[in-house]
Amino acid sequence: MNRLPLSGRPRLAQAPLLAPAAILWIVLFALPLFSFLVFSFWSVRARIMRPDFTFQNYVATIREYGDVLLITLGMGLIIALATTVLAFLFAYAIRFRAGRYGDMLLFITLIALFGGYLVKIYAWKSILGRDGIINGFLMWTGAIQEPLEILIYSHGAIVVTLTYFLLPFAILPIYGSLRAIPDDLIEAASDLGASPLQVGRDVVLPLCERGLGVAFLLSFLISVGDYVTPRFVGGGASMMGHFIETQFSFGFNWPKGSAMSFTLLATSLALVILCRALLRRMLRP
Amino acid sequence: MTSRPTDLQAMAELSRRSAISRRGLMGGAAGLGAIAGLGLQTRPAAASTTMTWMGWQGYETPIKSGSFLAENDIDFQPTFVASNEEIITKLQAGGIGKTDLITMYFGYLPIMAEGGLLEPIDPSKVAQFGDLIPQFNAQQSIRFQDKLYGVPWNWGSLPLMYDPAAVSAVPESWLDIKKPEYKGKVAMVDDPLGNLLVWGTVVTGKPMGTLLTREELAKVIDEMIDIKKNHARAFFATYGDMADAFARNEVAVSAIGWEAVAVWAKGKGKEIKYVIPKEGTGMFMDCLCIPKDAPHQDLSYKMINHVISPEPQKVFATEQSAGITNLKAVPLLPPDLVQSYNYGDIDGFMTKARLQPVPPSEFDGTTATYDDFLTEYARLQKA
Known about the structure:
Chain A is an all-alpha fold and 285 residues long. Chain A is 73% helix and 2% strand.
């Protein structure tokens, strides 16, 4: 396969062109992140951070918040899996099934990106609430006599709300991958006797593996880092982000908050790498 | 109140409801605050001094009242917050040296002073300090190492809220919320210190529910976990959410409250009432504080003197239905406000609603520390 020129090793002459972006990346991303990594080994006495080199913050994170960490990672996995599957189905429909309506569906996906994050949370609070659309419909049909309290202020409400919020972010990379699959390839597989299921499993899925990976990664990382949605629709079902926020605010403990952040980051990345390896293994024809 | 950008009324309302913590309710203001925070306000064309202030939406009204800003040629730049904790975070994250004045719950002042976030206040530069309610001036928590760090400004209590249409009788005790008839109908709010102010006393019987042994603290949290798991509808993020839940008939009684919740619920067409149960409750008092290295400290003092003078206090009390601290402003207030805050018998009011310090920083061999409290409270949040 031919490589695009820019995907090769950057030539020395290209370095000055990359410099502004590199400087921005270093100043706005790498340095702040590194400073928090350093803080995570410091200690706090009398509410003031003191330079130190201790692993105590990491030990405390595992000891005090290990259970929340596991719940958070579990929730992230469920949300990322649900989002990726739904996004694939939707993107597949746009690419292969919707015909001339495909562009319209794609436009709807983009429209869903508009509207504030909080707007979506409160929209779902209204939908899932005691007097929300779902309970109203179920009572109207006679399926239930009393509103279902479980719909909101539960882990399920967090999964539903975050899945909805993340769907557009997951659809776009998957759709991008599906668009790159030549029609000829699909037709060739069919001509050679592959059933639609085999075409999907052995041709389409392996070729959009990168899109699926990106969608899963985005969904997972945003989910595990979120603390607003759980607070507003979880009804007290706290995730790791909320406890990190506490350390940075009235906990006066930036070192511990930093250690909790890097623990979450490290475990999330490890899980993502594992999931990616599993995905590749599963999609290997 | 928080500062978030918005160009729609709806967004402002949404932001209001999204604000986090006790005053999170006032949160609505958050969205509008955002506008101010982004500098979308009209600025005086040639103001010579820009003064920055952090506090709740609505708290800026007395600052803007009268001709104070114009007379002192001040370009006033407010930043609205969703919680007291947000102010602490902002100061720690670069606000030091750039902020002229903040409002803060009095209980946090010793910790903030210890953490190097505040300048000591010279009482001799606060001309009306002697006119403030003496019981508030006498609070030890507005001082740290014998230096004053906050000027009492406004106050209120944390009563039990209830829906008169949903209760068979007005609750007399906080423990009444555990009656079977309220199972799944109790509103809780994730307000760490507020919960301790109420339930510390209820569980232990001690008047100062924040000064407990570690064993007592654990019992308080155990009790709250029981309420959360077995009686509560939800552990709401804000008082605004609690008001919404009352308005939607999702809850009948509350495990913590704030007078303003009744006002918000009424705005949604729902009448709820509040009562201070027999065990009493916590009380809050917000102070004016000068952050460390405030850039215009002379003007900060001028602003404090302006805010606590009678006319701005009257503006604040009437617009926010809040308790105020300058006794010379009380005769200017409408009679119903004077009555509801019981200015004639502050001592009597304070026997039912008590000002309490935050737990101490250092362990003295008996009393659970602030860090102990945070660790225990995390147990409640995780439950």
